[in-house]
Predict the structure.
Amino acid sequence: MTNRPFVVGNWKMNGLRANLAEARAIDRGAARHPGVRVAIAPPFTLIAAMAEQAETMAIGGQDCHVAASGAHTGDIGAPMLADAGAVFTILGHSERRANHGESDALVRAKAEAALAAGLEVIVCVGETEAERDAGQAEAVVCAQLDGSLPTGEGVPARVTVAYEPVWAIGTGRVPSVADVGAMHRAIRARLLAIYGEDGAGIAILYGGSVNPGNAAELMAADEVGGALVGGASLTAENFLPIVLAAAGPPSE
């Protein structure tokens, strides 16, 4: 696992230019914690403005098309993200998989397109409540990893995995720390199977109702290398305590 925690804010379909002040406040706060890599994925409309203003945090997209350009009304190509100042993109979020019918194969194709454009990728995986109740959570997540992750020379260094149990996203429900650790250990084992020893260096983020009150406990679980944060990332007041939790206690 990478030594530097990675905390990513996914603004989803939220944010106007008036909200750039919050992003600047997060950026200034992130500068106080150089041991944590901090990033925000705003809506596409704010990527360029946020990238121009950010001095510390990385800026990314929330999706991309498999094609670099073309007749795809309403979509955005990975080269466009890079041109706007993004350095990564989130792919395969459960809301994309559920609301847009995205398959593992499509997520992998998007990841390959993003990598070809010079971006890093955060690939999301996670089980539904029914799948967990049926005892299939680890099998489902491992199958998603097999189908969604890109492969090739140099790829592991540009890939992050985010585990987000679907039933915990935006609900306020959070799995136990033991359950989070068990799933992250299973993901690590799968990454090693897919990438060999390079799989040991891929950060595995936890996402799903992460907030200032539970961040420290969740990020102390086995193999948790950071967090993918939704609603709590929209303000510096809520997001920066999560960054602080990732930084851990001050060294003696």
The CA atoms of residues 176 and 218 lie 8 Å apart.
